[in-house]
Amino acid sequence: MSGPTIHPSELAFFSMLASCGALSAAARKLGITTPAVSKRLAQMEARLGVTLVTRTTRRMHLTPEGELYLLYARRILAEIDDMEQSLAGSHAAPRGLLRVNATPGFGRRYVAPVISRFMRKYPEIEIQLQLSVDPPAFSEDAFDVGIRFGEPPEARIIARRLTANRRLLCASPGYLAQHGAPGMPADLAKHNCIGMQQGDEGYGVWRLTTGAGTSRKTETVRIHGTLRTNDGEAAVNWALDGHGILMRAEWDISRFLSSGRLVQVLKDYQTPDADIYAIYPQGRQHSARVRAFVEFMADSFDP
């Protein structure tokens, strides 16, 4: 018994339809009538034997089957683009869909502006920027390039270091005037520390290192405080308001350190590395648009 027939042209049609978000918008983009778009979609659904989209007067929503169809459609279209560009050689301009994932704060402040400049250079590429507090795993095939803090532990993932990035301990001048500055890691137990959840790291544990080589020593400090969050912007605002000591990435607080609104503490101690990487699976290493974007990101961070 044969399964439903998938027509290659319908993959691009459905991907475009999902991007438009409405049958009327898709009709305008295709230069046809809305009933014609609806009819083509209905023919697809009849052939597949499933409902892909639920329609309302103004909007459309993908069913679970529609989400699955879209996932495979975009993956297949991306592989076709990669094949065509590989056959065309290095002279072909990168094109097709590129899905980029980053954390919300860094994504808004740094990645989105780079994407804006990238699109002027490569107008044939379509980019979807996904901002996630907890990024999805590569096994879910939810994105093509991820911007991450720290080198990934998996060997099957290719990582391109974009720039150095330190985590620093800081507090507002007002907080330090009232409570004093810690002189050593153990002093943090007497302070109100703002808890930040970083990826898989839980609240409440900071690791501080001094020295180098054989004299290198790392202390694990269990912190306490009245404020905890997984949102970096909220944590920085609490530190600015004088609520406690915060460990935060340099990219997020450098402007406040420069202006004096925050002051670095325990300067002689280093925290775990948080260098910024562009990561992508080995299966994407031959993709022209992935290579172009990663190179563009690296050049953007080049001092």
Automatic annotation (TrEMBL):
The keyword DNA-binding applies. It comes from the Bacteria. GO terms for molecular function: DNA-binding transcription factor activity; sequence-specific DNA binding. Residues 14-63 form the HTH lysR-type domain. InterPro entries: LysR-type_TF_proteobact-type, LysR_HTH_N, LysR_subst-bd, WH-like_DNA-bd_sf, WH_DNA-bd_sf. Keywords: DNA-binding, Transcription, Transcription regulation. The keyword Signal does not apply. Pfam families: HTH_1, LysR_substrate. One of its GO terms (biological process) is DNA-templated transcription. SUPFAM superfamilies: Periplasmic binding protein-like II (SSF53850), Winged helix' DNA-binding domain (SSF46785). Belongs to the LysR transcriptional regulatory family. PANTHER family: HTH-TYPE TRANSCRIPTIONAL ACTIVATOR TTDR-RELATED, HTH-TYPE TRANSCRIPTIONAL REGULATOR. This is LysR family transcriptional regulator. It comes from Pollutimonas nitritireducens.
